[in-house]
Amino acid sequence: xxxxxxxxxxxxxxxxxxxxxxxxxxxxxxxxxxxxxxxxxxxxxxxxxxxxxxxxxxxxxxxxxxxxxxxxxxxxxxxxxxxxxxxxxxxxxxxxxxxxxxxxxxxxxxxxxxxxxxxxxxxxxxxxxxxxxxxxxxxxxxxxxxxxxxxxxxxxxxxxxxxxxxxxxxxxxxxxxxxxxxxxxxxxxxxxxxxxxxxxxxxxxxxxxxxxxxxxxxxxxxxxxxxxxxxxxxxxxxxxxxxxxxxxxxxxxxxxxxxxxxxxxxxxxxxxxxxxxxxxxxxxxxxxxxxxxxxxxxxxxxxxxxxxxxxxxxxxxxxxxxxxxxxxxxxxxxxxxxxxxxxxxxxxxxxxxxxxxxxxxxxxxxxxxxxxxxxxxxxxxxxxxxxxxxxxxxxxxxxxxxxxxxxxxxxxxxxxxxxxxxxxxxxxxxxxxxxxxxxxxxxxxxxxxxxxxxxxxxxxxxxxxxxxx
Length: 469
Ligand code: UDX
Ligand code: ADP
Prior knowledge:
Layout (H helix, E strand, L loop, with lengths): L9 E5 L5 H11 L4 E5 L3 H7 L11 H8 L4 E4 L2 H7 L2 E4 L19 H13 L3 E6 L7 H9 L7 E6 L9 H6 L4 E5 L2 H11 L8 E4 L1 H31 L4 H9 L20 H14 L3 H28 L8 E5 L14 H11 L3 E5 L5 H16 L4 H10 E3 L3 H5 L4 E4 L11 H7 L5 E4 L15 E3 L4
Parallel strand pairs: 1-2, 1-4, 2-3, 4-5, 5-6, 7-8, 9-10, 9-12, 10-11, 12-13, 13-14
Antiparallel strand pairs: 6-7
Helix pairs in contact: 1-3, 5-6, 9-11, 9-12, 11-12, 12-13, 13-14
Adenosine-5'-diphosphate binds next to helix 5.
Protein name: UDP-glucose 6-dehydrogenase
GO molecular function, one term: UDP-glucose 6-dehydrogenase activity
Keywords: NAD, Oxidoreductase
């Protein structure tokens, strides 16, 4: 039984992914007296968490896992037993956009969340606090509560919403020093129990408590606002390219207004990641559901602008390269959706590669953290998604037109062009004279992140194009 006099001793987190893994590692590090168990149905993933090579790349994560694993941090496939023994259960499973049925392409697929709730209801005894960590549409807690109320063993539950705001690549910093931790719920005791966990390392004034629905909606809104900033500056980047303006100068000028602020104004080839698009589409679906088509349309435009930015990048490449890239070798530098992560979900690279392949370009892809199998899988998936299934011709297209390199230099060898799509720091440290030497001339370099803008590559012999200037 959990109440004020019985602090949390055992936590179970369902889902050992990009959110569950790092978050639980941080809780284990900060709370040595709490036993933290991270469970997943994916045996391979759990084996990786128990090995020297973790399934996700995140600076600083390995050290924390090594410090706590085998002490108070366990990764296991023993889902039921871990749920049964826990005082507090986090649900941190994936909630992808639905690809079928009602709300396809917009609504979140809550199948995995519902399965978790049913499993918790089936195996629990006594009282437990269930915490929604995955990003969920507003009022999901209601469904979770109803499922939990049909427990097998007369167990009782409090449901909290505790959305995660960490960004990949900086997850450890974000978890260690969050701007805020949001806890939504109805039961003051349950809220207090979770506040007490975070209060071990997060200053009290940054622990915000709200009602359940505000907490759920705040997560979608935060991501929608962040993505909106990127789409806004990207929209301006198109105008900059048509005029003599420079988008980075515009961003610096507007960002120095303290009401606007300088962050999240970096024009790019387009935002990616598992959250932004999914959460906005989710928001759009909710607005439509609640009879607010104008609000839905307003937010949908953020995603449309992002799609336009990715398409625009490819169009500019093709136009610049004499209107054809057919049979030309193009080096793709970067496949992850941002630097310092091996995550490729919704990466702009996938869509740029797809459109270049449709133009019959030959791609040679390099990413420091993403391997060949993952790259091929993403490309097969994006073609399969468009056509309903992966046709033989698309399978052949990928097979015949994609190679994967082990370095930037190898990818650029004899290439007509380089497309830099992820802002990995190592890309700015190359010997560009050597790269130029190995490429066909004119040597085109399309910088989708303005990462090499200050290196004067035009003066060094490249045909250099960035975003928004
Ligand atoms: C985001 C939110 O930041 C985080 O709070 C939430 O918990 C999950 O979603 P994440 O997707 O990990 O985090 O990465 P983020 O740093 O937000 O970047 C998202 C995308 O936007 C990336 O593709 C990034 O390259 C792009 N981006 C970001 C820009 O193109 N320009 C910017 O100025 C900022
Ligand atoms: P996120 O980025 O939200 O963390 P991930 O896809 O990286 O998402 O991780 C979610 C994890 O949840 C996956 O490893 C998946 O296997 C796991 N998972 C999904 N459903 C269940 C379930 N019912 N029980 C246990 N684990 C689950």
